[in-house]
Amino acid sequence: MPAPELIDALRERQFRLLWLGQATSSLGNGLVPVALAFAVLDLTGSATDLGLVLMAQTLPLVAFLLVGGVWADRLPRQLVMVSSDVIRGGSQAVAAVLLVTGRAELWHLIAIAAAFGTAEAFFQPAYTGLVPATVSASRLQQANALLGLSSSAAFIVGPALAGVLIAVGGTWVAFTVDAATFAVSAASLLAMRLPALKRPAERTNFLADLAGGWRELVSHTWLWVIILWATTYLFVVVAPFFVLGPLIAKESLGGASAWATIATAWGIGALLGGALALRWKPERPMVACCALVLVEAIPLSLLALRAPVLAIAGAQLFGGLAMGFFMAVWTTTLQQHIPEDKLSRVSAYDWMGSLAFLPLGYALAGPVAAWIGVSTTLWISVAWVLISTVAVLAVPGVRRLRRKEPSPPQAEAALPATLEPAEALSAR
Fold first, then answer.
1. What distance in Å separates the CA atoms of residue 424 and residue 79, rounded to the nearest whole number?
2. Is residue 311 a part of any domain in this protein?
3. Sign of the Cα pseudo-torsion (197, 198, 204, 208, in order)
């Protein structure tokens, strides 16, 4: 258990509300990867079709991220997030109805995934920009680590629970629970009272706002290098893993329960990575993060070899640890080095750049595996983990980046006067 001082961020009301809402929503989302994978495989039995559904969710996410980033820097971020919650919850409810009535077809799942991804594009930049406004500066990495911990815990419980729900009630139950958790997230966000964001007095148009975010992005070598790396990593490594992994589990490892075990192990590892981020604030944050990513080559190798489930899951635990730590430290570094009024736009460029080729990766993983073989495709992923990570560590800007010391923490009572969400919107 973390020491009490390591969870002090939860003493701050605004962050506590944010954490409660997102922890609940994460639990629902933790059910869906397993449920979605087997809903598609039950309908068509095709890994290519699963890739198409995942692509349908990711493509609009990429396409609308910059729009979401601009609006998150213009409007009250919590209201942008609430709107996204309403749309995403509704899409999951529709999926549940179609599945339980037996009327679901592949095109339905593709359309629902596209609606979900579009709403997600507005949520994520606003979320990244909102966190620093909910917690004292000295507790920012702690706050990001706690958010990561709750998300990781959800993805431990979620896949395991999804396996049970699928076996007992069907995939529709998981979508129903996820829809309900979005309502909890929206209610928590509406209960928050945040200071109005200081924005430039001179109003600018959409393209000017985009250009301002781009200038901020390219002024930091470490930032655009890591984003470029993430673009290739998600395309070559992550997409094949999530398309081919369920197929290998279904054909060789025992089905949904095997894939749920592997996914749960990743969640446990990510939980440990978040706990590590609570305690360790590396002086050179990107060096530490990138070096840890090298362990991701191990679970990929074991999956390519069709090793026993427990061996793959054990290795995936360390991969989850690396990524759990990476995400907490990366988000904190971004929030500390980027001005608040540009943070959502830069975050949108981060998300868009990182995800740019993920839809194509989802679409190509099945056909490429059918052409050159599933194991060969995964061995290419292993090689890319090693080659690309070493290349990033060789960049001086990445190696030289140091942790930014926060200013002294302020008491919550000393924060600027807060506005109700509706008042904040009307004030503009």
1. 10
2. yes
3. negative
Nearest alpha carbon to residue 362 among 271, 245, 235, 249: 235
How far apart CA 157 and CA 268 sit, in angstroms, is: 9
pLDDT at 201: 55
* Local confidence band at 3 (pLDDT 50, 70, 90 cut-offs): low
Asked if residue 327 belongs to a domain, the reply is: yes
In a domain, 211, yes or no: yes
Which of 138, 89, 79 lies closest to 112, judged by CA? 89
Packing angle of the helix pair 140-168, 256-279 (nearest 10 deg): 170
DSSP sequence for 12-80: SHHHHHHHHHHHHHHHHHHHHHHHHHHHHHHHH--HHHHHHHHHHHHHHHHHHHHHHHHHHHHS-HHHH
Residue 427 resides in a domain:
no
Q: How confident is the model over 297-334, as pLDDT tens digits?
A: 999 999 888 888 889 989 999 988 998 888 888 888 88
Domain that holds residue 318: 4-192+206-402
Rounded CA-CA distance 52/407 in Å is 47
Q: How many residues does the chain have?
A: 428
Domain CATH number, residue 302:
1.20.1250.20
Please give the tally of structural domains in the chain.
1
